[in-house]
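Dear colleagues,

I hope this message finds you well. In preparation for our joint manuscript, I am sending the UV DNA damage endonuclease (Brevibacillus borstelensis AK1) sequence together with its predicted structure, so that both groups work from identical material. I would be grateful if you could confirm receipt.
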Amino acid sequence: MIRLGYACIRLDSPNNPNKKTTVAQVQKLSPDARLKKLRQVLQTNFFNLMDLLAYNVENRIFLYRLPSEFVPLATHKVTEDWDWAKEFSWDFDKAGAYIKKHGIRMTSHPGHYSILNTDNPKVLKATIADFSYHARVFDLMGLDDNSVLVTHVGGVYNDKEASLRRFADQFELLPENVKRRLVVENDDTSFSMIDVLTLCERIGIPMVLDVHHHDCLNNGEDLFEYIPRILKTWGTRTPKMHFSSPKSESDFRSHADKIDPVKFIEWVTKLSDYDIDVMLECKNKDDALRTLRRDMQKAGISPEGLPV
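The corresponding structure tokens are as follows:
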């Protein structure tokens, strides 16, 4: 069965778990006022998360990407004296219990500034801290290793092979709870499906296939010849893939507002023998997901087990 998901926010609600503050804003405050502000933001994000998860369950959406800014400024030194994990342990337990009860798969995608194959020690230190924060959130919720952290390989630095080796070497520096969750996605400019698949097989972690990125960057491979190898990298975990449609022929790399149903149906019907979670990466978020479902139902196809 194919399950569909969306990233971070639902369009019809202003109450999403991505509220944040800035370093500049909190540094203007006294220590007590600063803590109050940070607590208010995180409490709001928990409230909004529970509301969003209930909406997802009501709409039978069981794959969701948590915004990276869920815990405000979690990796910045301005919050180093704030034990947010301890203060909000009840909230993490509550969210985790709801997620597990309803079989929701949570994932995350650390920011583009987190680059594991960097040759800059300061960037590497910040990357490890960011990955560790994301893993800690899922650990605090008690979620299993299907709650993955998706990253890209990073920069080419004028030597692709050396950059791939550096990723593998610096992967070994990660804490074990991060290693268990980290997965790598092919990108649209530098590291192709073949590059990432070879890397993931080498270091023993899953690969997230991004279909649109493969359409942007490839060497003419028949993608479906590689699907078994990609799925094998997941072991006993449920594979996760990304799907989006190009904005236009002239702006092919950018994501469209919604999913092209013809292309998606053509692709997904070839995967009908597998259990795969597919994250839809498009501007219209949950609305695009529900629109795609309707388009598929009109075509007599329902990979999620919903009535046709």
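For the figure legend, we might mention the following. The longest strand covers residues 2-7. The chain has a mean pLDDT of 94.

With kind regards,
E.M.
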